[in-house]
Amino acid sequence: MKMHSVSSLSLKVTRLLLGLLGTFLVGATLVNAEPYIVVSGDLRGEIKPCGCAEEGDMGGLQRRGTALSNWRSEHPDVMYLDLGNNFPKPSAQGKLKLDLIQQALKLLKPVAILPGPYEWNYGQATWDTFLPYLLSNAIDLPWSQVISQEIGGERWEIWGYVTPSLLYQNENDPPNLVPVSDSLIQQWQSQSQPGTKRLLLFRGTSVEADRFLQSGWFDRILVGSTNDDELNQVTTFTTETQLLQMIPTKGQGLYHGFSSSDQLEVRWLRPDTADWESLTPLFTNYDQEVKQLFLSGLKRMQKLQQETQFVGATVCTTCHTQAHQSWKSSRHSNALATLTRVGKDFDPECLQCHVVGFQQKGFLSSQLTPQLANVQCENCHGSAQEHIKNPLNHPPLEARQSCVNCHVGSHSPSFNLSTYWPKIQHK
User: Fold this and answer.
1) CATH superfamily membership of 31-282
2) Can you give the pLDDT at residue 129?
3) Coil, strand or helix at 158
4) Is-contact 138 176, C-beta < 8 A?
5) pTM listed for this prediction
6) How far apart are CA 22 and CA 27, in angstroms?
7) 402: closest CA among 351, 343, 356, 341?
8) Residue 254 in contact with residue 40, Cβ under 8 Å?
9) Residue 321 burial (CB count, 10 A)
10) 308-424: CATH superfamily
11) Three-state SS for 121?
12) Of the candidates 101, 120, 194, which has an alpha carbon nearest to the alpha carbon of residue 163?
């Protein structure tokens, strides 16, 4: 009996030791698992494909959620990163999309988000403080400069760079962002921990990218999209020294792959990727809000259409195509966005120089009169209503006379007609 008891005890001890060893080995495997990188970005307000055409039926936050959920179930250590430019263009409906996007990102749980120009259009006050926004070349902004993460037994540092040239910065104010330079890179290096791997989320010029590449400091650089055509995707960013991977535009695809891979793969979010059910309540609520927004503005919009004397630049392009293209490439065509960035798009003193016909039965708001947003033809040439009826008897006003209405005093201290005029001159 004693021999049997000792044998049973030995067997139990052996099993316990083997179990502990197995647990240790599994744990060790999980700790040393290679990080799996997933990268998104450049949603640009396209929260869900409209489905109007088969070739354009790609992308959407709900499909992104499903793909990300599947990768997380397959890989123990997923490092999900977002290159920003997710917000839509400013509008009442855009604000509803903005809220949905940030709520969705909370559920998707990225490690870091690089805020692009689309985020800046709404201003920093709209950025959810519970999301990991990252700006490493920022000055005196309350956002992370570097995000460190222990993933798969590796220590990673994620840095973010947005070129100042993509953002409007008043030359009379201190800059919010600084350009890449040797001193900036040295500053980052002084803050870095030894033995870490480094990844850069980048949005800028090829020259700036080369500066970072030549430093040899980053293990991987991921680039935000510079492409606007979602039907002709461009997923590479060319520099003098190297081709970098650039995220697809309009959120139509994701990059994914192990951290040791030279190149990550593109996963296009086509109809064969189901919608992630965790996001369904957000989209249901969004649809209800959009419907309410539409109904609330109908009566006022109908009255406005009867009273306004301004037509908007879209009407002018019918006869003045070349002039319209010249205007589109000027800063005048984005004048309202400069107010939105600093939260002044409801200030009457500012609006009178950034939209068409403010307080003259013209612009009311971005929601009610989007066709009259920004500085357009009628700011300089006068109302086009009579001109359209009889062009010969009602020629447009001489535009030069209008410049000093806004480019005056502290509003435009460096204004000089001889240097400013060529930038907007057209026929």
Assistant:
1) Metallo-dependent phosphatases (3.60.21.10)
2) 93
3) strand
4) yes
5) 0.66
6) 8
7) 356
8) yes
9) 10
10) Flavocytochrome C3; Chain A (1.10.1130.10)
11) helix
12) 120
Q: Where are the alpha helices (DSSP H) in 359-425?
A: 377-381, 385-389, 417-424
The structure tokens 């997380």 sit at: 72
The Cα–Cα gap between 312 and 383 comes to 9
The domain segmentation of the chain, as residue ranges, is 31-282, 308-424
Alpha helices (H) in 172-259, listed in sequence order: 182-191, 206-215
* Burial group, residue 394, by CB count within 10 angstroms (0-12, 13-18, 19+): middle
User: pLDDT tens, 120-138?
Assistant: 888 888 999 999 999 999 9
- Pair 210, 239: CB distance under 8 Å: yes
- From edge to edge, which strands make up the β-sheet containing 112-113? 112-113, 78-82, 36-40, 253-258, 265-268
Q: Tokens for 369?
A: 């009169």
pLDDT in tens, 151-209: 878 899 999 999 998 886 666 666 688 999 999 999 999 999 998 999 999 999 999 99
Cα–Cα distance measured from residue 67 to residue 71, given in angstroms and rounded to the nearest whole number = 6
Cα–Cα separations (whole angstroms), residue 331 to 271, 325, 326, 362, 376: 39, 12, 10, 20, 10
Residue 415: left (phi > 0), alpha (psi -120 to 50), or beta?
A: beta
